[in-house]
Write a structure and sequence with these properties.
Blueprint: H1 2-13, H2 20-32, H3 37-48, H4 55-67, H5 69-93, H6 112-117, H7 123-126, H8 132-137, H9 148-173, H10 179-185, E1 207-213, H11 219-231, E2 239-244, E3 248-250, H12 260-273, H13 283-294, E4 300-305, E5 315-316, E6 319-320, H14 322-332, E7 335-340, H15 354-359, E8 363-366, H16 370-379
Parallel strand pairs: 1-2, 1-4, 4-7, 7-8
Antiparallel strand pairs: 2-3, 5-6
Helix pairs in contact: 1-4, 2-3, 9-11, 9-16, 11-16, 13-14
C-alpha cells in the first residue's frame, strides 16, 4: 500500500494524471500481481499511462521505486562475476592459461578535417518529448516548430471545442413548456394541465469570421489558431477564415481539405503567391479589404488574432485610422473579439492600438498559451 502511494506521488510530480481513483485501482492491481515484476509493471502501466509518450518515463520511475537502480547494478555485477568464474573453470579443465595484458593508453591522431566534421548532437534533440500539460501552458510565441505532438494537441483541442459547442447548442435547442399557451389551451379542461404546449426552438443563423494576423510577430501563433479552427470547423456554421498583414486573403478553401497537412500546404501556397511572408502589418488597408468581402450583419461574430500593432497604417492626429474601421465592424456585427498573444504590460506601447480598439467596443483578451486560446474560441 505504501509503495503504491509513493509511486503515485512520484508519478504526479512527473506530470502524470494521477487521481484517488487511479491510486485505488493501482492498489488492487498490486495485490493481484505482487511478486511478479513483469506482469505488475504492465498492469500498472495500463492503470497509470494515458499516452504512449509517457512510456519511457514510466519505466524509469517504476525501476527507481520498485527495484531501485543501485540494486539492479549490483545484480548485474554479481551476474558478470558468476559468468567470469564459470569461463575460468572451463578453461582450467582444458589446461588453458590466461594472461592479463596491461592496458596502455592509445594515442589517436586526429586530422583537422576530422575535427571540423565532428558535429555533436544538439541538446534540443536529446530532450524527452513534452507532455500535453507542458505544451498547453508553454508560451505560445515559443512554439515555433511543426512537431507532431503539437499538431496532434491542436487537433484534440479543436475537437474538444467542437464537442463543447455542440453540447451547448443542444441545451439551447431543448424546447421548454410555454406556460401562457398551455394555460389557454387547457381552459376547456377546467384548468387541468392535460396538454402541454412547448416553445419552438430559435433558429440561429450566426456567421463566424476568423482573421489571422500573419505578419512577422504573429506568424506562428496564426498557424496554431488555424489548426484549432480546422479541427472545430464542424461546430461552426457558415465559417470563413481570412489572413492579413498589409492585405487580406481568404483561406476558407483550405478548410475543406480532408487532411490538416494538406490544408497547411494550401495556406502556405496562398501566402507565397500574395507575398505575405514576414510582412509588415497595415491594418487600415487589411480591414478595408475585409469589409468589402465579408459583408457583416447583426448575426456575425468576428474573431481577430493579432497583436494590434499597426506598423504601416495611416494615422490622423496620433490616432490610427484603422480604429474607425474597427468601430464599423463592431457596429455592423454582433460581437468582435481580439485575441492578443502579447503580454498585457506591453499593450498601448509604441504603435500598439489596443486602447483605440477597446474604445470603439472591441473586446481584447490576452492569449499566452494554447489552453487560453482554446477556451476563448469556445466562447463564441
Amino acid at each position: 500500500m505504501k509503495e503504491i502511494v509513493n509511486f503515485s506521488k512520484v508519478l504526479r510530480e512527473a506530470n502524470f494524471p494521477v487521481s484517488v481513483r487511479t491510486t485505488q485501482a493501482a492498489c488492487e492491481t498490486y495485490e493481484i500481481f505482487k511478486g511478479d515484476d513483469e506482469n505488475l509493471k504492465e498492469a500498472l502501466r495500463a492503470v497509470y499511462v494515458k499516452d504512449k509518450v509517457q512510456d519511457k518515463k514510466f519505466d524509469k520511475i517504476f525501476k527507481s521505486v520498485f527495484k531501485g537502480e543501485d540494486g539492479d547494478k549490483s545484480e548485474e555485477v554479481k551476474g558478470a562475476d558468476k559468468g567470469s568464474n564459470k569461463t575460468r573453470k572451463f578453461l582450467k579443465a582444458y589446461n588453458y592459461k590466461i594472461r592479463v595484458q596491461d592496458s596502455k593508453p592509445m594515442k589517436i591522431n586526429l586530422n583537422e578535417s576530422d575535427i571540423t566534421d565532428y558535429r555533436p548532437p544538439l541538446d534540443d534533440y536529446l530532450k524527452p518529448p513534452l507532455d500535453d500539460n507542458e505544451l498547453m501552458k508553454r508560451d505560445i510565441k515559443h512554439l515555433t516548430t511543426f512537431e507532431p505532438e503539437l499538431l496532434d494537441l491542436c487537433q484534440r483541442l479543436g475537437k474538444k471545442i467542437a464537442n463543447k459547442r455542440v453540447r451547448r447548442q443542444k441545451l439551447a435547442s431543448n424546447v421548454h413548456p410555454d406556460i401562457r399557451k398551455t394555460i389557454r389551451k387547457n381552459l376547456k379542461n377546467g384548468g387541468a394541465l392535460i396538454e402541454v404546449v412547448k416553445t419552438k426552438p430559435r433558429i440561429k443563423k450566426s456567421r463566424h469570421f476568423f482573421l489571422n494576423d500573419v505578419s512577422g510577430s504573429c506568424d506562428w501563433v496564426s498557424n496554431w489558431f488555424f489548426c484549432m479552427v480546422y479541427a472545430a470547423l464542424n461546430s461552426f456554421k457558415l465559417a470563413r477564415t481570412f489572413e492579413f498583414d498589409n492585405k487580406t486573403i481568404e483561406t476558407t478553401a483550405a478548410l475543406k481539405e480532408p487532411n490538416i497537412l494538406d490544408a497547411f500546404i494550401k495556406v502556405r501556397d496562398m501566402r507565397q503567391k500574395n507575398l505575405m511572408i514576414h510582412g509588415t502589418s497595415n491594418m487600415y488597408r487589411a480591414f478595408k479589404e475585409f469589409e468589402t468581402v465579408a459583408k457583416l450583419n447583426n448575426k456575425s461574430f468576428v474573431l481577430v488574432l493579432s497583436d494590434c500593432r499597426d506598423w504601416a497604417g495611416p494615422k490622423s492626429e496620433g490616432k490610427p485610422l484603422s480604429s474607425e474601421l474597427m468601430e464599423y465592424m463592431v457596429n455592423k456585427s454582433k460581437k468582435v473579439l481580439i485575441l492578443n498573444p502579447e503580454p498585457s504590460n506591453k499593450w498601448n506601447i509604441a504603435d500598439s492600438c489596443v486602447s483605440d480598439y477597446e474604445a470603439v467596443g472591441a473586446h481584447v483578451h490576452e492569449v499566452r498559451n494554447l489552453e487560453q486560446l482554446a477556451d476563448l474560441i469556445t466562447l463564441i
